[in-house]
Amino acid sequence: MTLLKIGFPSGSLKDSTFNLFERAGYKVRLSSRSYVPSINDPELEGLMFRAQEIAQYVDRGVVDIGLTGKDWILESEADVVEVDELVYSKVSSRPVRWVIAVPEDSPIQRVEDLQGCRIASELVGATRRFLQERGIEAEVEFSWGTTEVKAGIPGLVDAIVELTETGSSLRANRLRIVDTICESTTRFIVNKAAWEDSWKREKAENLLMLLKGALEAELKVGLKMNVARAKLEEVIAKLPALHTPTVSNQLDDDWVALEIIADERVVRDLIPQLKRVGAEGIIEYPLNKVVY
Amino acid sequence: MTLLKIGFPSGSLKDSTFNLFERAGYKVRLSSRSYVPSINDPELEGLMFRAQEIAQYVDRGVVDIGLTGKDWILESEADVVEVDELVYSKVSSRPVRWVIAVPEDSPIQRVEDLQGCRIASELVGATRRFLQERGIEAEVEFSWGTTEVKAGIPGLVDAIVELTETGSSLRANRLRIVDTICESTTRFIVNKAAWEDSWKREKAENLLMLLKGALEAELKVGLKMNVARAKLEEVIAKLPALHTPTVSNQLDDDWVALEIIADERVVRDLIPQLKRVGAEGIIEYPLNKVVY
Amino acid sequence: MTLLKIGFPSGSLKDSTFNLFERAGYKVRLSSRSYVPSINDPELEGLMFRAQEIAQYVDRGVVDIGLTGKDWILESEADVVEVDELVYSKVSSRPVRWVIAVPEDSPIQRVEDLQGCRIASELVGATRRFLQERGIEAEVEFSWGTTEVKAGIPGLVDAIVELTETGSSLRANRLRIVDTICESTTRFIVNKAAWEDSWKREKAENLLMLLKGALEAELKVGLKMNVARAKLEEVIAKLPALHTPTVSNQLDDDWVALEIIADERVVRDLIPQLKRVGAEGIIEYPLNKVVY
Amino acid sequence: MTLLKIGFPSGSLKDSTFNLFERAGYKVRLSSRSYVPSINDPELEGLMFRAQEIAQYVDRGVVDIGLTGKDWILESEADVVEVDELVYSKVSSRPVRWVIAVPEDSPIQRVEDLQGCRIASELVGATRRFLQERGIEAEVEFSWGTTEVKAGIPGLVDAIVELTETGSSLRANRLRIVDTICESTTRFIVNKAAWEDSWKREKAENLLMLLKGALEAELKVGLKMNVARAKLEEVIAKLPALHTPTVSNQLDDDWVALEIIADERVVRDLIPQLKRVGAEGIIEYPLNKVVY
Amino acid sequence: MTLLKIGFPSGSLKDSTFNLFERAGYKVRLSSRSYVPSINDPELEGLMFRAQEIAQYVDRGVVDIGLTGKDWILESEADVVEVDELVYSKVSSRPVRWVIAVPEDSPIQRVEDLQGCRIASELVGATRRFLQERGIEAEVEFSWGTTEVKAGIPGLVDAIVELTETGSSLRANRLRIVDTICESTTRFIVNKAAWEDSWKREKAENLLMLLKGALEAELKVGLKMNVARAKLEEVIAKLPALHTPTVSNQLDDDWVALEIIADERVVRDLIPQLKRVGAEGIIEYPLNKVVY
Amino acid sequence: MTLLKIGFPSGSLKDSTFNLFERAGYKVRLSSRSYVPSINDPELEGLMFRAQEIAQYVDRGVVDIGLTGKDWILESEADVVEVDELVYSKVSSRPVRWVIAVPEDSPIQRVEDLQGCRIASELVGATRRFLQERGIEAEVEFSWGTTEVKAGIPGLVDAIVELTETGSSLRANRLRIVDTICESTTRFIVNKAAWEDSWKREKAENLLMLLKGALEAELKVGLKMNVARAKLEEVIAKLPALHTPTVSNQLDDDWVALEIIADERVVRDLIPQLKRVGAEGIIEYPLNKVVY
User: Fold this and answer.
1) E220 close to E261: Cβ distance less than 8 angstroms
2) A20 with A215: CB under 8 angstroms?
3) Which residues of B touch A (CB under 8 A)?
4) How does pLDDT run across F125-165, given as a tens digit for each residue?
5) Inter-residue contact E153 to B62 (CB < 8 Å)
6) What is the pTM (predicted TM-score) of this model?
7) Cα–Cα dist C35/C57, whole Å
8) Using CA atoms in the order D162, D168, D169, D172, what is the torsion angle rounded to 10 degrees?
9) Cβ distance D106 to D118 under 8 Å?
């Protein structure tokens, strides 16, 4: 039987990934101490890996597809097909950044000042390539964790390369950003051979369509309302231009029923406007998936 | 920039208030130890106060609108516009009451018997006015908490004035109700000057429309069903009279699709009746907001 | 006043049963240490029992209806009307099985080898009948719990009869399955006399209709989409044959809106197919009840 | 190698039993889903059982010794040596009782009134023997739990036999006690053959000495104080008569140091008295074990 | 029967107060929703009150003794006997302070600048008296909570009077201290008439002795060591001068055993010193009570 | 001011290390997200590191002393003074082991069979040296975690090197141990230069004395008993030979009081023996520190 193998990220992304798959229609379950999640689709098979390792295993063909960050794709120099970006792990849609940071009072101001310095990072490879491209010779050493605090310990390192989202953790450690190595968001990646296999490609594309449909539905709601036929034009003028609304007949021929999909964030402004131009019995209902 | 300032109640009402705003379309977040919640609408600004203080601060204009109980509006003698009532803090829709209570075996039977007595309450002002209007002289002292137990401690006080919803806590403390000072529910109040400002008034009215739309949706569901055109009249006769149903055509011309909004609590009786008179494929679905 | 009395299972089935009733429209609440749940329908009265006991109490007429497993109906040899099966207690729809199990290295290979043996089980009666029907004499003793570990203690018993769903707990205790005593799922059972009483029977049938409507909705979703009139036939050809779809007119006469109820588990395959043959703006929304 | 096998009660007694063994000097650990606890004494081996089963397994020799209630020893009619009583499972030292109880308004007043009745209990055997000894014929049926509520369900049973400590649960169920079947406390029991084996008997006796030493220490504290030699007689006169105090010399020959073991509950009266007759520098310190 | 009635503080001090009584030898238990704790001494009776109310009720004789803060004694102007101070509610022994605070950038620099201002506080009475004594007229209004944030809301108040321990919460709210109203620690207070009753006074004094004995023991440990008689003088020279050590003879006449009570915080310096001058077999053991 | 800098292990050892310091007399506190713990001794300064890194930082002089495992000292090839071993992180005193493990059904039986294989481990350096010393060429790759499951994924690696204490996790993953790389316990290590500085050396030695005194006390208890002078010799003959007991006179001259420090684990055997030869009133009490 043909199978599509998926590399899931363990750790902090695990729960939000499984939750996204659930909303897309796939129940993924992991018993404690196991690493092989069960999936309620016999054509899919999953394996848990650290986010750092996934791109490499997709490249080797251990799994056909994977979800992991752009940063770790770069770091592992994996040769994979980046099919799409999936922003689901945080409320914020801002990408994370890997930055070079130094103590606030360090003499280092620009990346060129790192010549001959020692730098600690979990992202050793990408950091080294970044410096080589700029002709800077520096010693980049692997950090096992709590990298931010290392920059502040006298005699340890001159700079660090660390992940930041809002910069608040850097500020709390009194660090200053010198430069940005790369930005990163989660990617849906596919092994190159698998992408050439028509069955696997279609299976992967279908899965991606459903994942994106579930993400889209998070931000949308359905709206229905009754509108007097005489006021229909005025009501439609208030609607967001994007999609044609659906209009149905009522028993009472003077009225129609109007239905649209709207961004959840505009509804609080839209409902009072629609009500003022004559919409009645407005209801808002939740959505599971939206696929345009 | 024009702003509408909102006084939110801290304490036991905080979470249910924030939750109601969320369902209405406004994300209100309060970081710990802060008193200025963030709201994802740049035209709104919030401040947290104890429910006891909000009416007074709306009166003074520290904030434009507030949510607080009728009891504390009376207690603080605030001069504000009570725009509407919002029942959202408890499953029950019964209002709370402030009552005069005495030990079960007390000789006090009527409010007139309180002449010359000592009374403990957190609602000192309203209690004093209630007694003065009836020509009763009594000493009303402020109680810092657990007022109910004070009525039972020999030599402490003769009566208490306390909040009650179902009376169960009074019974547990073996107290008997003598009279009612006032009933109370949550109110949406507005500063008098703000109510005359057309921008603030419209903003407040829109907000109220969405809050009430979210509350209404809690108690309603949507129902859809397929009905043979020949049985349509009989099915419609079973429906609650309130609103006109929506009827749509199906591919098969002998059938129509019928859709209504119904009280969640009648659905369990309605569905079997509709089924018996010929409705088919009945579905019930959840609602986020209902605005008539 | 006429009442329908319900026997609810305490223990592991309690929460899922109450939850199912909630979704059907009945709030069932049990205060701690009580056994009489409150129900927000004055025509219903509930009692909590161990699942093992319910069939027997329905038989005796202590309650009119009950929810319990087929295994305990058999064990108690109760004479009741099994109206329907309700599968709601687990994600999986697989029935549980009671099996005879022995240590992996036991010489016992077939049920006939149990002649003269000692067996521990919580299901003593059904086990004895099973053995008697096969002419096997064995001592079946009641086990108070942790039956699985008993099979592994030298000199205690030769075999056990225990409940299993996936077999994983048996494997963890290094046990081997020899035979199956019975399979079991939850049943909606009614007392024979109550079933002849027309008021009780209709009340029981209405309740069952709503319980099944809520269970059905768990597995279904609503789908709506816009389809160009020219592609309608092709789209309808992709739909599951079961039910006629609803088609509504749009303002733009070249398009129609199509709506169906679909199994949640086929949606992940259906959406990509519909999209490929021309459906647009596909949305999926959740359902509370589905009653055909 | 010679071993003493111990049957430990699982369920509600497990943690307090393991804790008592820990204080006696034995670390007993049970990994989850296991039933063979590890003990840090190679001469001891443990097995977990339900309290109901232990006496029977001690009788059969599956284990040499066990800790279980007098009630279950009687119920299982086990032929074992009851070496001692150990009161450790509750703050209270009151034994539990198995009582016959009926609804408050039942016509049953004395045990003789149970003639021809139906009784539910978890303690079927002891109940039957109790009734037979009094010439009463009644049907005693096994109850799977929540026995107390059964007495209140019309048509179910006429009486129950249930465990009670303070009677509060019976009162909460509006039941009245008719008679007492037996009282029960935890017993340290030994298999008859093991008790004749001199190695096992000494090992069991040593274990019991340490368990009782730890229990004794819970209720005792050590007291030390400095006393002027001139006031020694007066101080000693205040001490509990039970044990001779220890007196040591100090560098300053006019003073002695006095040390006693006292009941923790008298210390709050003793210390002020000792201070008033001249004791100085009184210290109280905790004890692990007390073996007289 | 003669009784000593105790007013216990409810709220944040409750658990630490009950814990202190437990260590002193009194088990105080409060069932939820009750206000009459049980105490395992028939001569004591307890009542729970808010700390704010206790001094007033000790004054009126509702209870004989109470534990509450110096601040609330002053605020309620209660006429009671302050017998002793008990520092037990925090790790720190620093007293709390009630301070006048203003926003960092306020023009108010000294208490005199408050003339004509509005001040919010929970300590209305003491604040008014403090200002009157200095001839300052200002409006002091009662604050129901989160007083610190009020100073920073434009147009609300000019200053606040609030409790502070380390000042960190004031700093977090960007407030500056202008003056101190009073300092406060917990006091053991007695009703004046009760203090003249010899039985009540002795009972209160005994209770205080044990409470202080338990508090003292928290900070002390016992030390024992063996010392060669020849080095005794040198070892004793290293000991804290406060108390005479106890010296006992050993079997080997060349050695003595030496025992002292020492502050826990000096032990880490004392032990290495004692070891260096010849003490051997040094042991440190915990204490329950120390009564000099 | 002179300071001794300590490298503390973060992660799983953090809490047990801080707890050990607390018992030794040093309060070490770490606010969340910080890496510089506060210590209540102005002569000490702490830094948190991963256990993997500490030896290297002691070698470099970033800190003067550190606590870390022998495994990570070897892995980092640090040149430090290993002053002592401190066994405190687990109940068991068994050292942990790093082992080479393969799937149960792997053809690899001995370390020599790893020629040309791929191995995953967190302990890359020590593993490579181990193989080189045996002339084996194999690819050792760094593993980011869940190493044990990797051995079971087809095509990933041939063997792993992983930490094991009891082997249970290896068995759960169906792995077989092929060989042991190294054993490891926690070490108290000092920088070579710091060890030559007399102030730092004495400070480190005092700290070590107190840490070991607290660890020693975990395993010891104090024992006191009364002995008839006539039986003293017989009782002393039963005592562990190690230390001279302390003997004090009692008021009754025929009796003496005898006191010793004993291993907690022998007490359960010692007490019954002492009792049999005539010791009376034996008490056991807990110890905080024991420094010989």
Assistant:
1) yes
2) yes
3) 24-26, 40-41, 205-206, 209-210, 213, 217, 222, 243-249, 259, 261, 285-292
4) 999 999 999 999 999 988 877 788 788 777 778 999 999 98
5) yes
6) 0.78
7) 15
8) 130
9) no
